[in-house]
Amino acid sequence: MGTVFSLDVRGGEPGAVRAALEAAAAGLRRVDEVFSTYREDSRISRLARGELDAGACGPEVAEVLELAAEAERTSEGWFSTRYRGRLDPTGIVKGWATERAARQLLAAGASGVSVNGGGDVQLLGSPGAGRPWRVGVADPLRPGGLAAVVSAAGARELAVATSGTAERGAHIVDPRTGRSAVTDLVAVTVVAPRLTWADCWATAAFAMGSREGLRWLDSLPDTEGLLITAGDEVRCTGNLADWLG
Could you tell me the pTM of the whole model? Predict the structure, then answer.
């Protein structure tokens, strides 16, 4: 997937956790093999070229395409699996794969799990008694600085995802035009229980721009957002403060 994953696992029986870690890592490698748009032989590339139909691509592809269709409906088309006219569900794959790996580890008996996929994080359980997971949100306008710190205190599951131009430049596409999204934003961070959705909603809100993106994020249940504009304005959804600390 062209990025680095880190897995932090607390508690559990060591042998079971070690086996789950190996399985989770193998699962992430498989996701790359199946969904990479840079591999000519991946199932998603073959599907995009019409060499396979969706039914022949396996249950993982069917699940991701179904989730992507739900994301497109919820965002009223601002999230899309079409990238410059070609099927490309990678906007949902990384969040989905990261969340799935985290849940595998929790199911193996871990008491706390943090899986970071290229800066997007799924948190489950806790790192220790009375201690919450905490995630720093990078400041896109001040390299090395933090715009906020998200605390998972009081939640058994929480995800933090950011979309923007600081790391990869103008890579987010406006689905209405098929060209790079032109907005007043440099970054959108979304906090929600599941990384599958947090990742999608951050991308969609960025494409909308700060005014519409903030309004839309505020309308979603169990979802908060932090939006930073190119003019260094910070805009937050109504209850984001509940997760900062």
Answer: 0.94
